[in-house]
């Protein structure tokens, strides 16, 4: 495998799950709270994994027992992005707002790298999972969690409207606009049972170890499928989510006019007839 060495995130490739990458947020002494260098690393990693032919599915977890991530490192942000320092007081409001707008957009792009990644991404949540944890989770394809997870859309508690993806993606994930408004407006903490009930997570496991194991097993299963079919399925589902049915059908027609020419179709069909496990070339 290529060298994936970063300061704040670990990338490993579990030998028991071929073609699976395990990305771990690794700042446990700070509850995996994010500073700017971390979301830049996150973006770099998912951009690389997206085009790595040796990877077909990805699991994202948080190091340590206490937190997936506590969200934004508020102390660091208060000295930088969220500072109330006047900066250059001679600038008018438009000229102060412009670099801030660009900065927010750059953070959005970092989190969106998970959604844009061609490979399916499974997030395994545990412990504290606040603020940015929700942004990250809803940019992924599948979410699972441990029974002890504590989730919250926390931004209103620090004087912000969530701006990195939660307000755009969470309503489409759970399909319950009233519930989304409630948790976003109150910043209240909710647990695994409620997350499962509204459809935010697919499964709940007893503890972190079982959650990570379950996520890796699910990723391993996905990785056994045709990468042409899997990557196409993610692309078409995400496109159809944001477009009309007719537009989705049209895009699917164009996409599959090329992708149906793959050898993976005949390999999958023959393996079913011959009752053997199919193998697929890297993509």
Automatic annotation (TrEMBL):
MF annotations from Gene Ontology: delta(3,5)-delta(2,4)-dienoyl-CoA isomerase activity
Pfam families for the chain: ECH_1 (PF00378)
InterPro entries tied to this protein: ClpP/crotonase-like_dom_sf, Ech1-like, Enoyl-CoA_hydra/iso, Enoyl-CoA_hydra_C
Keyword presence, Zinc: no
Species this chain originates from: Aspergillus ibericus CBS 121593
GO cellular component labels: mitochondrion; peroxisome
Metabolic or biological pathway, per its Swiss-Prot or TrEMBL entry: Lipid metabolism; fatty acid beta-oxidation
Swiss-Prot/TrEMBL GO biological process terms: fatty acid beta-oxidation
First-listed, main subcellular location of the protein, grouped into a coarse class: other
Family: Belongs to the enoyl-CoA hydratase/isomerase family.
Name listed for the protein in its UniProt record: Enoyl-CoA hydratase/isomerase family protein
Gene3D superfamilies for the chain: 2-enoyl-CoA Hydratase, Chain A, domain 1, Lyase 2-enoyl-coa Hydratase, Chain A, domain 2
Subcellular location: Peroxisome
